[in-house]
């Protein structure tokens, strides 16, 4: 029988990140993008979108804040499309020089072997690629054809080596059945696909409402992914106003595409607490802790993360507790997914 969020939470490790003791910081070098993805948090799909690049000095200031005040172990680089940012390599080199990890979120339109090698030399640790059938890419009509494109990137990362690969996409009522198409592909490529992220589609731009009845219950996604991937969840991030789950984590071990085991809540907890004790920081991806040892044994770990972003309730925004994807804007720490509302005058702070 499928379990509710509250029932699952009682069995899992609640990640204790806070606004100012967190593993991750989020920066956005640009709001330029070649694609117009439905539900884009940055409103790129809207007719009145204004694209711009952020000054490199400002980004360095934000990174300094994240290290000194938020105690991060990782900087995530989003957008817009960061590969369009003219100073991206220099930005990654700067992050590397500070002794923290960098994680690039991209549509990968401009990503080829030469560019990937350039980013690798700069010290980039991980790339997460957004591909789905709604992006109006040439030759992509469904998730089967999208998987063929994903396979090309898997081969690219195998050739280059040394940079971890992930994929991310949003899930709505229009594509929830695709989970059963995606799971076998990601399991088959578990030797190179380090992370799979599904986000619940939400339209949180100011003045906009959900279109075409796209809402999809998070519990349905949790149960559907659990069955399709044959996985066990181990940890979660909660929400601030109730007992709901915001981020759900699972990590499965594979050899030759066959499941060998899973990370337990206890293992996830021990890794976080040990890293905090030894190095003074939480790990953004705790399951990286044993990656080298596992790879030497030809065992590969694949994390699956499910994200249910904030909802507006009568009591206010029900935010992710200690939001990992917070941005430092105008002296404030704010959830990146609600930035357009904040620009529009709403006072929404990370908690």
Give structural attributes.
alpha/beta; 351 residues; single chain; eleven-stranded mixed beta sheet; globular; 30% helix
Overview of this protein structure:
- The chain has 351 residues and is an alpha/beta fold.
- It contains ten helices and 15 strands.
- Strands 1, 2, 3, 4, 5, 6, 7, 8, 9, 10 and 11 form an eleven-stranded mixed sheet that branches. A two-stranded antiparallel sheet has the order 12-13. Strands 14-15 form a two-stranded antiparallel ribbon.
- The longest helix has 18 residues, at 143-160.
- The radius of gyration is 19 Å and the shape is globular.
- 45% of the residues are buried.
- The model has no long low-confidence stretch (mean pLDDT 93).
Summarize the structure.
Helices cover 30% and strands 23% of the residues.
Number of strands: 15
Sheet-strand content, in percent, reads 15-25%
Name the shape in a single word.
globular
Largest β-sheet summary? 11 strands, mixed
Q: Helices and strands, in N-to-C order?
A: HEEHEHEHEHEHEHEEEHHEEEEEH
Overall helicity = 25-40%
Please give the radius of gyration in angstroms. Answer: 19 Å
Mean of residue pLDDT? 93
Report the end-to-end length measured between terminal Cα atoms: 34 Å
Could you list the spans in which at least 5 consecutive residues all have pLDDT below 50?
Answer: none
Give the count of helical stretches: 10
Structural class: alpha/beta
Q: Which SSEs are present, and which pair or pack?
A:
Elements: H1 5-9, E1 13-14, E2 24-27, H2 56-70, E3 74-77, H3 88-97, E4 101-106, H4 113-122, E5 126-130, H5 143-160, E6 164-171, H6 179-188, E7 193-200, H7 218-229, E8 233-238, E9 245-255, E10 258-262, H8 265-279, H9 291-296, E11 300-307, E12 311-313, E13 316-318, E14 326-329, E15 332-335, H10 339-343
Parallel strand pairs: 1-8, 2-3, 3-4, 4-5, 5-6, 6-7, 7-11
Antiparallel strand pairs: 8-9, 9-10, 9-11, 12-13, 14-15
Helix pairs in contact: 6-7
